[in-house]
Structures are given as C-alpha cells and as structure tokens.
C-alpha cells in the first residue's frame, strides 16, 4: 500500500500498524485509492481540506456524517460509510442509514468482525485495519470478490432488517417488523427472526444458546432448548423468533403457548426447559395469559431440516408459513406473498 502511495509512514520509515488513523488521513487514503482529483491547499489551509472537498464532491463523504474534528481517530462506523460509498456509486446518491451501510460493507466482505464477530462500530480503527479495508476496496473496484465474515454480516443484517436470512440462506422474509393474526383474539408482531446453523460452532448467535441445547435430552436433568421430538439437533437450522403477543378478548383461566395457537407443517417446535427459560439472551416465558387484556414479548423456537431449505432454494418451495387450527383456519406467511422466501424455478 505504501508503494502505491496510499499510506504514509509515521517517521523513521515505520508503519506503526497499531496506531489509530485519523478521519483526515483515512479520507486521504480513500481519495487516493479512487484516483479522485485533489487540488492544492490554499495558503493558510490545513493540508486535509482539499481531500475533504474531493470526497464530498464525489459523494463518498457526507458532511452530515461528520464535518470537523479531522484529527480525531476514525471509527469503524465512519470508515464503513466512506468505503461502501466508494465501491457503489448508487449509494453515493441514495438516502441511506448507518445500519444499511454497515450491512452493505459486511456482506461485500469489506468489513469483518472483531473477536466473536462483533462489529465494534464505535471503536477507533488502527492504521493496519484501515490499510486492510482500503486493500479490500481496491479488490472490489477491480472486479474481484471477497470472503464474507458470516457472523459479522449476520449481526449487521439483523441490526438493519431484523433477520439474518439473507446472510444465512440467501432468502428474504417479509419486511420486519410485521403484524399478523395468530388466531382468534390473539395478534402477534414479529420483530426478529434469527437463523442459527446448529452444526456450525461458529454460527452467529450460537453463543446465545442456553447450556445443554446441543446435548442429548436427559429427562433426569432437562436443560437447553429442546425439540418436541427430543432428539439431537443435527443437520438443522434453528429459527428463533422474537414476537410480541397481544389479545383483544379475555378467557378466564386460559394460558396459551405460541406453538399451541398455531402450527408449522415444515418446522419442528422447540422450547427452553427448566431453568434454561431464564438463561441468556434467549430467556423467555412460555405461557401467554388470556385472563386479562395484555401483551408480552416472547422468543419462540423452531427447527427446520437443511434438506428442506435446500429444496426450497432449488424449487422456490413454499415451506415457510404457519397454519392455524380449527374453525379460524388460515395461513400466516413468512414470505412477502406466500410461503416462499427464495426465487427460482417453480416447484
């Protein structure tokens, strides 16, 4: 990178990889990588002013992002904004949000996660990290492709859309959050749908699972999130859904669990057992009381076989839906129009 004139040393021919890089320095690197025309600083102007002006003129930097404190270390969030606009001219003109730009940066492989896949968006970038990001930007501008950190992309996608289904499966659920009837007098607002690969120890959100989830069920010491079939999680994904339930009428002494209210022909229900209901980010109550008018957020869990997902991809299968029981029968689709979340050939 130094040979290309994109990064300067920090004295005595040193690179200082762990030193932070300032906003002005990173914008200069971005301008240089893009080959933007940069004028000379006027008398009395700081050296960075022409670089800032060039980035703003090209649409790579927006003054609404930040417009000062140029000697301040640049954050990973600020770096993501600049670089993703640099590689996609459409994003320079479009109205965007920070979660969108971070997701664009992660799904293209520009931004990787830190330890555990965390994005660390408020953390300052080091000179070494900035150099890696610029190098990745050049790869994309040259028509290349980059490996994607699936955990980082998942976390970014969930922050942007409420689900990581595109990262994990290449599909699309209907836009979250969405509201739907669960059954007569009970409504649900689907807020998040997380996909976990239960065979991949590095799967996003796997660290959220309560202890015992991946072990064989033992009735003498029940723990974890257990499928109703009570067999091991194998060749499956978990779908974890955060749903706000509410009722419009009361029924005395009646409690429902989500799985009792509505079925799922292609999913297998799972539920946290014993003390696992109070453990970690997936802690949840199971019962929803109909005795009073109320609302409650719950996590509900389902298993889906990987072979079903692959078949759905290949044939655009309509497998992603719930179905009510009894006289109030209807279908609750997770796809935008039906139970399909993939494009492709007709089944």
TrEMBL record:
What are the residue boundaries of the SLH domain, all occurrences included?
1-44
E.C. numbers: 3.1.3.5
User: What's in the keyword line of the UniProt record?
Assistant: Hydrolase
Q: Name one GO molecular function term.
A: 5'-nucleotidase activity
| Enzyme's top EC category | hydrolase
Q: Which InterPro entries match?
A: SLH_dom
What PROSITE patterns would the database entry show? SLH
Top-level taxon in the UniProt lineage: Bacteria
List the protein's name. 5'-nucleotidase
